[in-house]
Amino acid sequence: MNIGAASEQSGLPVKTIRYYEDIGLVRPARSENGYREFLDSDLQRLKFLQRARSLGFSIEECRELLSLYEDRNRASADVREITKTKIKEVDRKIAELQSLKRVLSDLVKACHGDDRTDCPIIDDLSGGLDTAFEDRGKS
Amino acid sequence: MNIGAASEQSGLPVKTIRYYEDIGLVRPARSENGYREFLDSDLQRLKFLQRARSLGFSIEECRELLSLYEDRNRASADVREITKTKIKEVDRKIAELQSLKRVLSDLVKACHGDDRTDCPIIDDLSGGLDTAFEDRGKS
DNA sequence: TCTTGACCTTCCAGTGACTGGAGGTTCTAT
DNA sequence: ATAGAACCTCCAGTCACTGGAAGGTCAAGA
């Protein structure tokens, strides 16, 4: 099957599939006319990649998962560990965003939001060292 | 003050400050020796940027907020609107991550995690069209 | 047969927001 | 005088694509 069909079947953009070939995640054969020829096994890999990426695994993690996937002797525990690490990362990101949301919500609450030219949000951003918002500093 | 002091005062890395100058977010004067000379007003901008970036505003949003910040006539309502839009974005990201976490947790729960070579996580990633996880497809 | 248009190819450049490094100048302390 | 820190510019790399130019191939219709 050509790249267009592979794209449709896998849910990955054509450009992305070519990119994945570039970085060695998939190695489709070539037809005589130079077109990429995707076998079912290639399509499997692409679907795997689509799914894993949509679950937030990085390209390098996908590479690792793929090699576990191909390795008939890999332990289920290895895959489980990678996934658990990923869950912890997701948890961390959620917590960060929730704290961010809290600060932003406080700012909006404190802001009268009319056409006056004083604004607590701007005040906070421009120094605000003595406002109620304590958790400044980079994450 | 030199870039090193500005970095320390603002909490932004030296490289980042130079980058911000490149893209026109800050315009420090130059001393005779070619060194950047940061005035208090420059430092204000840098602190503003540090804070706004840490709150998840993009560079372009920071540019907008800065121009509102400089504009003595801007309405508080404008700033409030930008912030509210940002909160909605943060909410969306949190929801995405929570759904992602649910799927990953389900996978880990289903995975026996021993040294057997069958693994529900890999099974899910490699097609898994008839597993219990429904929300595949790109976000 | 010719043409149109869809699909395919490669290659180069850009995204966002930095970060790292090379190679060179200036300042400061000893 | 000299060592080392701090500064300078410029170029390249990061991540995971995405867009576009310029051109080759294929299938269908006139």
Could you explain the architecture of this structure?
Two copies of one chain form a homodimer. Chain A has two domains: 3-70, Multidrug-efflux Transporter Regulator, Chain: A, Domain 2, CATH 1.10.1660; 83-125, no CATH class. The first copy, chain A, contains six helices and two strands, in the order H-H-E-E-H-H-H-H. With 139 residues, chain A is mainly α. In chain A, a hairpin with a 5-residue loop joins strand 1 (29-30) and strand 2 (36-37). Mean pLDDT of chain A is 80; it is low at 129-139. At the A-B interface, helix 3, helix 4, helix 5 and helix 6 of A face helix 3, helix 4, helix 5 and helix 6 of B. Chain B binds a DNA duplex (30 and 30 nucleotides) through helix 2.
